[in-house]
Design a protein that fits this description.
Elements: E1 5-9, E2 15-18, E3 25-26, E4 32-35, E5 42-45, E6 51-54, E7 60-62, H1 80-95, H2 99-102, H3 108-125
Antiparallel strand pairs: 1-2, 1-6, 3-4, 4-5, 6-7
The structure holds zinc ion.
Length: 126
């Protein structure tokens, strides 16, 4: 079983998780983000000392490394096709969940993700 791709921002106390290769999830304050799903464990950060990896057993592992932070990228506005592709991949991912996972309750993070996706989609249409 593949390890989950999760990180916790110690600045804003947000846990982010990337489920799919094209799924970039940023924390509330923008200090950290994860991408790549379980295929590639990509991490984006501003202050590495304020981020921990969240292991599958929920233990927190400090991130070591002397790499320079990735240069801040300007926000990229996704196209309608990219948004629809992301929604399509999410639908497929949900359809492949085992029945016990389908019965798990939806969290406010899930609801927020849906609202952000809808907001991006309708903003694109204007
Ligand atoms: Zn943060």
């Amino acid at each position: 079983m593949k390890k989950r791709n999760r990180a916790k921002c110690l600045k804003c106390d947000t846990i982010v998780e990337s489920l799919l290769p094209a799924d970039l999830q940023m924390c509330k304050c923008g200090n950290c983000g994860v991408e790549g799903g379980t295929e590639a464990y990509k991490l984006i950060w501003e202050d590495l000392s304020k981020i921990v990896r969240l292991e599958d057993d929920n233990t927190e592992t400090p991130i070591k490394g002397d790499a320079e932070p990735a240069p801040a990228m300007p926000p990229v506005k996704p196209s309608r096709k990219e948004i629809m592709d992301t929604i399509g991949m999410s639908i497929k991912a949900f359809e492949n969940l085992p029945p016990n996972a389908m019965m798990a309750p939806v969290t406010h993070y899930d609801f927020l993700s849906l609202l952000i996706t809808m907001h991006a989609l309708f903003a694109e249409e204007q």
